[in-house]
Specification:
This protein is of the alpha+beta class. The protein is built from 11 helices and 7 strands. One of its GO terms (biological process) is cell surface receptor signaling pathway.
Amino acid sequence: QVLSLPIVVIVHGNQDNNAKATVLWDNAFSEIDRVPFVVAERVPWEKMCDTLNLKFMAEVQTTKGLLKEHYFFLAQKIFNDHSASLEDFQSRSVSWAQFNKEILPGRGFTFWQWFDGVLDLTKRCLKSYWSDRLIIGFISKQYVCKLLSTEPDGTFLLRFSDSEIGGVTIAHIIRGKDGSSQVENIQPFSAKDLSIRSLGDRIRDLGQLRNLYPNTPKDQAFGSHYNSEWVGAE
């Protein structure tokens, strides 16, 4: 006899997300010769990073994995800690409860539910943009403001929404004639929105967007993603 891979039985599609979390945790963190159903309650954060990266690349089917700065953002999110350094997080362990039981502060969903929403959106609508490294994605709104605050008017970047599951938003800087500046975040686009009109064409439509951070003209960065019939119409 041999132990099978983990199986979760669900009775409704709304349980699918939690079932995937259980299977992922069990596959990634159980010992090969373990007692059935026994799996660690806490795992090193570094191990979690490897698991999230492998899951992301496999689901999205991309060779471009998560970067060090992405892990830093994810650590701040799952531990709800914005004061620790990247090195501090490397020595921590993360619990099943933090992964998919505790609701994120001020939200109505868990860390895994949010991450799985990002996975689904990227797989369905953003694979080519991600693979071309046009999306920073995993970055906080506060850090975006810091990055864009010294940039020219119309500089923008793309980040995954914090407030919605499965949304991507465009943050851009607006500079007034008096020298004042503010960073605006456009209402997040969902997979449904992007199935109606692609991200590239939406970026093309928005005249206030000029350069992809740090300094690539938007037509140069996204030109290959524009719908050809729209390009020909100019």
